[in-house]
Amino acid sequence: MSSISAFQPMTSQAVTMALCTTALGRSLHIVEETSSTNSAALALAQQGAVDGTVVIAEAQTSGRGRLGRHWHSPQGKNLYASILLRRAPLPKDVSRWLSWAPLLSAVAVARAIQVVTALKPSLKWPNDILLGQRKVGGLLCESSGMGSAQPVVIVGIGVNVNMWRDAFPEDLRDLATSLAAEAGHPFDRTSLLAMILSELELRYDAFFSGTSADIQHEYVLRCSTIGQAVRADLAHGEWIEGQATSLADDGSLRILVEDSSDARKRGSVVVLRAGDVTHLRSAHAAEKGT
Hints:
- This protein has 290 residues and is an alpha+beta fold.
- The protein folds into two domains: 3-222, Bira Bifunctional Protein, Domain 2 (BirA Bifunctional Protein, domain 2, 2-Layer Sandwich); 229-288, Roll (SH3 type barrels).
- It contains eight helices and twelve strands.
- It has helices at residues 3-6, 12-18, 37-46, 94-117, 179-183, 189-209, 213-222, 280-288, and strands at residues 28-34, 54-60, 79-85, 122-124, 128-131, 134-144, 152-159, 229-233, 239-247, 253-260, 269-272, 276-279.
- Strand 4 (122-124) and strand 5 form a beta hairpin.
- Helix 2 packs across helix 6 (189-209), helix 4 packs antiparallel against helix 6 (189-209) and helix 4 packs across helix 7 (213-222).
């Protein structure tokens, strides 16, 4: 496609025409700018927005990543979207749904990127999208009202689509990339969004129909964290280093601990449900300039 058409603003008409979903994206809210699409989606959820409602922004002034990090969100180049998922799991499945929502969403985004661009992204646990060693996208899932009559999980998605390398802030150029930078040409954001919503709806339906066994297999196949030497920074300044060995049924990461701020953990297997994980081989390679 031409560079000019790739940078055209997204429209409700164009997105609707590209969709092949039943629920996701059938209620659309496209704004020029917002503080964050997750915040806008939560406000809509509190007003009774339906399952599958999608908020899209051309720019975010306070885009958020995991652990309160800022998400660089320039105008008109990337994809910033949040999806409201309204289905209520059974009480016994609430914890599993909250654990798997970001993981199955990450699989959907990675699969959509591969279909649209022919690039092959991997996943850094729990929900970063990588091309090579650089981050091309990420997810932030937030929930509200779980256990009530109106639960909602908001899946916030950010994908760097059409930013060239020199457009990134200098401190991000070695850490982040975009689809265009990797492929050498821009992509249509509308087509990418439609594919993400299609892939997400497939896995959303599978989870709630009880046929989600393949999702864990998909995640493991794409997860570059498994088999890596990693460091995990935990609460209260605690940390562990070791080998990420496998994924538990609830999506937690199992780490065989080799070193830790708590000597009692050395030699044990820690099941990590949340935390900040660094791939040590990648970090060491970056330090050596390789």
